[in-house]
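Design job #97: recover the sequence.
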């Protein structure tokens, strides 16, 4: 049991945070375990609930804990490590890690490409494109929010049902050859609606990935923007010296 040292130069919330982190690192608290409530922690350590809240939120932001509205605070699962060394789909990456991928279609429509989308896809303005917004899950746990744009003429028969699976696999089954992609990564905070869908706290850290995927003839196949949970996702970049 942690003994709070109120004479220590270390803030009390930091002492509690370090104690809980050690419990997780040592395996005494395991992924999926439910933490006591702020009130219970407050009574246990004889400190204010605000102090407990600060310690817990720091651990949530660091990826050790996750909060689910109406359910409580849990020890977070191990992060899913993606390697940036080849072009794979979300479904392929998740299956490779022994988990079950799932896409929940939030919206699906054909729209005329705006100036921005047309520029990203290198197509004329107003060209019909699919706009698909999907919640991507691994073993039923929300991991990412994705908005993808694909010119309709590349996949004229793509349906809503098709959009719930791997679009890369669908494209290849219909004769398209995907070659490579470029990604731009940016750290930011989740907005209220994004946080709700990803079951994280508002302003929790997320990783924004802009991806442009190309066909073997050099033309653009897809432009997508994905928000990945910062507490569930990490990137490894493979680099060669040049």
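Job complete. Output follows.
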């Amino acid at each position: 049991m942690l003994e709070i040292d109120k004479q220590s130069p270390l803030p009390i919330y930091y002492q509690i945070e370090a104690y809980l982190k050690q419990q997780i690192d040592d395996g005494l608290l395991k992924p999926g375990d439910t933490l006591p409530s702020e009130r219970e922690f407050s009574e246990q350590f004889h400190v204010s609930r605000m102090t407990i809240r600060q310690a817990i939120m720091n651990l949530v932001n660091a990826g050790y804990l996750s909060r689910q509205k109406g359910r409580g605070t849990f020890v977070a699962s191990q992060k899913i490590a993606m390697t940036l060394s080849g072009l794979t789909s979300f479904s392929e990456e998740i299956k490779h890690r022994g988990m079950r991928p799932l896409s929940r279609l939030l919206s699906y429509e054909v729209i005329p490409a705006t100036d921005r989308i047309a520029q990203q896809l290198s197509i004329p303005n107003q060209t019909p494109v699919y706009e698909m917004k999907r919640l991507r899950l691994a073993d039923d746990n929300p991991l990412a929010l994705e908005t993808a744009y694909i010119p309709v003429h590349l996949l004229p028969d793509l349906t809503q049902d098709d959009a719930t699976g791997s679009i890369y696999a669908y494209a290849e089954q219909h004769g398209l050859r995907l070659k490579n992609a470029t990604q731009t990564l940016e750290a930011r905070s989740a907005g209220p609606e994004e946080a709700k869908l990803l079951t994280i706290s508002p302003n929790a850290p997320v990783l924004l990935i802009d991806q442009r995927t190309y066909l073997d003839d050099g033309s653009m196949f897809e432009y997508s923007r994905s928000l990945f949970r910062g507490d569930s996702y990490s990137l490894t970049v493979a680099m060669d010296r040049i």
